[in-house]
Design goal:
With about 240 residues, the chain is α/β, with parallel strands linked by helices. It contains eight helices and six strands. About 35% of the residues lie in helices and about 15% in strands.
Length: about 240
């Protein structure tokens, strides 16, 4: 059973205190302008070719921002039925109906075949605060997921994962009078593109990096920043 580091517990509790707040002002602003990218990665294994299959929405028309309304029924069916050829889950366009979000998250929780997941801000930003927490918990609880790719929404995603982690820790404490830390045992690779530059200057940045230690099987972390690399970013990478 993982040992709780008191310093880490104090830091992540800073985020947990506002997890259930309905006031959007409690969240940090994570807007950043894009210029030349700078990327850093930590490798302990070499890249391997993967034979993957995914369901594409060929009939969807992209709008001016390159986004389309996602067609979910066939994706939900493939997830729920654990289709062996469905190993890639691509969630990058907005979703509108609450019942579709609920069905999708339930399907993700019951799935065992997906190994690669990509989540974009178009999809993530279309979710309510409740569904963002549920999404983070569903993805980070998936026992078969090996690779996770996200854009600038990753810090907020990890914030919600930390909220769920703290909630599970507190629930366990109430039942057993001792702490237990929920950890992800499966994800081996995380790729982040367009990481907001100002995240390095915010307390949330350190919380994000410290929360990464709960991905105990992580072998590769790749971060592409949305601005020029700075000293604050270097400090944050050392935390990681």
């Amino acid at each position: 059973m993982p040992v709780v580091d008191q310093t880490e517990k104090d830091v992540v509790d800073m985020a947990a205190s506002s997890c259930c707040s309905d006031d959007d002002s409690s969240f940090c602003s994570m807007d950043a302008s894009c210029s030349d990218d700078s990327s850093f990665s930590f490798d302990s294994v070499s890249d391997e070719d993967m034979s993957i299959a995914s369901i594409a929405n060929d009939d969807a028309d992209d709008d001016a921002d390159g986004l389309a309304k996602i067609e979910l029924p066939q994706i939900i069916e493939a997830l729920s039925s654990n289709r062996l050829d469905f190993t890639v889950l691509d969630l990058c366009v907005p979703i509108e109906k609450e019942e579709e979000v609920s069905d999708l998250l339930q399907a993700i929780r019951s799935n065992t075949t997906v190994t690669t997941c990509s989540i974009g801000s178009g999809f993530f930003d279309s979710l309510s605060e409740r569904w963002r927490r549920e999404l983070a918990d569903s993805i980070c609880s998936h026992s078969g997921l090996k690779s996770l790719s996200m854009d600038h929404s990753f810090p907020e995603f990890l914030y919600y994962f930390n909220c769920c982690r703290c909630w599970k820790r507190d629930q366990y404490y109430r039942q057993h009078q001792r702490y237990w830390e929920f950890q992800n045992q499966s994800i081996q690779e995380i790729r982040i593109r367009d990481m907001p530059a100002d995240i390095a200057e915010l307390p949330l940045g350190r919380i994000v990096m410290m929360t990464l230690c709960n991905f105990v099987s992580l072998e590769r972390l790749e971060i592409t920043w949305a601005d020029e690399f700075t000293r604050d970013m270097a400090v944050l990478m050392r935390v990681a």
